[in-house]
Design brief:
By secondary structure, the chain is mainly alpha-helical. It is 75% helix and 0% strand. It has six helices and no strands. The longest helix has 28 residues.
Length: 193
Amino acid sequence: MPRVSLSHLPNIITLARIALVPVLILLLKDQDYAAGLFVFVIAGASDALDGYLAKRLNVQSRLGAILDPVADKLLLVSAYVMRTVLGHIPFWLVLVVVFRDLLIVGGYMLYTSHAGPVKMRPSILSKLNTLMQIALATLVLAQLAAGLDWPLTVHALVVAVLVTTVASGAHYLWSWAILKDIEPAQPGEHRHD
């Protein structure tokens, strides 16, 4: 049996987060919102934990640099799509969120296919956008789990997600296409956070 060292722990946690995605989808499909909220919170905590451990253990890997953002996007997009299917989040908001992510991933792949690997540095707007997306997803799940109704708060977060999604997508386009603010990755340089 292969031996697992502490250096593998962040990637194992990230893989566990990916494994929670179908569990979350099934729980939301069955409208078990309390369990869905629990899984969503555990998955979010695992994101913080794997990033902390990667930095603390000074573990940097190409696999981790790829898996971590994939796990985050799978979790958020799955949660948003399922809540849209169930009628809890507007369909147009999911389109905006998914289009922005496809734009960033497509731009990254296009650039790296021509110029080679680059450093991906999330902007402050992008981090704010992720925070707003998580806040909206958590609030909607918490409302459903507890039988609460806070339409003004949900509407405010929908607007915040829309504004930060469009602003961060436009910022990436501006930075990459106009300012050409793209820094090549150095050989052996990979992040896991």
